[in-house]
């Protein structure tokens, strides 16, 4: 089987091809790459093919030609590079990759900073919000920016979320005569117009505006900013989270999030997941923002708007918790059913028979497996002469599993 060799060039000005890479280039008949990569081999005797915005044409040539080809790429071809696109068009057996030093590796080396505990992301295609979601979920991040999602734009979103406790290293034009590394902070990035070729490295120094809170289940109710009737009480919250059966990388919708207490505790259980706290009430939205800041949530985002209309911009859920429906329960469940995969779970906390009956009727008609648990909570009253129990309204926890 004819192999297509994909060879990485190191950082500009320090390409540093290995003996293996040079041997492959010498042996091939067709050399493909961007202009700056092809220029590295001025004496190449075979055919040179420019890769610009003609990727489909390149794929066709590689499939139809019997001649040995080498594709030149930047750094590691499988690190935000052409390697992913090639793997979509060729089998793994047809490709062989020869990686080089990436711009991110080079940047960390210049900073003398270990990078095995960092996350890597490209803002291109993901957008500002998606990129910052990943950044705030981690302590160390390397970001490949673009003309729209600039370091200043990323910094502005971090400031907007109150997550500015990062040291920032803006690494520009690496390997060239114009190489520059600027050490600053998140607010400092707002004042810098970055060069088009840059790597942004962010390392957490502190949690801005947040107290330290140990991840625990059953956070006391009084820790949350909320009205008395709004909070999902801690005992009910713990059972609710158990019924959701969360795994580390799931997507959770928290509909009618109220104080955000369920999202906050779920955040500890979903270190690689994503949580969307949906709320329409302006007062409750204020509570959620305050609580998210206080508990330094990493993977939860507030979605302001009416359910189910606001679901369109959210990824499909693996789990859905409904704490409040605003009178739109049936419409919300219909929208959830269209997006929830098989074996997905919906958990509803109901305090009225009306909600219990409506939800049970919907799930029965939709063919879900249904379970209802009643939780009765009573606590001793503090600061009283006699130990007496104060009972709270029972809560019906409805668990529906999609067949």
**Quaternary form:** single chain
End-to-end C-alpha gap: 45 Å
Largest sheet: 7 strands, mixed
Q: Which percent range fits the helix content?
A: 25-40%
CATH superfamily label of the largest domain: Vaccinia Virus protein VP39
General form: elongated
Uncertain spans, ≥5 residues at pLDDT below 50? none
Global mean pLDDT:
91
Instruction: Compute the number of helices.
Output: 13
Gyration radius, to the nearest Å?
27 Å
What is the CATH topology of the largest domain? Rossmann fold
Report the sheet-strand fraction: 15-25%
Count of domains: 3
How would you describe what is shown here?
- The protein is α/β, with parallel strands linked by helices.
- The protein folds into three domains: 4-101, Tetrapyrrole methylase, N-terminal domain (Cobalt-precorrin-4 Transmethylase, domain 1, 3-Layer(aba) Sandwich); 105-204, Tetrapyrrole methylase, C-terminal domain (Methyltransferase, Cobalt-precorrin-4 Transmethylase, Domain 2, 2-Layer Sandwich), CATH 3.30.950; 221-401, Vaccinia Virus protein VP39 (Rossmann fold), CATH 3.40.50.150.
- The chain contains 13 helices and 19 strands.
- The chain has helices spanning 19-27, 35-38, 55-64, 82-89, 103-111, 127-136, 151-160, 186-189, 234-244, 261-269, 282-294, 329-339, 353-366, and strands at residues 4-9, 30-33, 47-50, 69-74, 95-98, 119-122, 140-144, 166-172, 180-185, 198-204, 251-255, 274-279, 300-304, 319-322, 345-350, 369-375, 378-380, 389-391, 395-401.
- The strands form four sheets. It has a seven-stranded mixed beta sheet, with helices on both faces. A five-stranded parallel beta sheet has the order 3-2-4-1-5, sandwiched between helices. Strands 6-7-10-8-9 form a five-stranded mixed beta sheet, sandwiched between helices.
- Helix 6 packs across helix 7 (151-160).
- The longest helix has 14 residues, at 353-366.
- The relative contact order is 0.08.
- The mean pLDDT is 91.
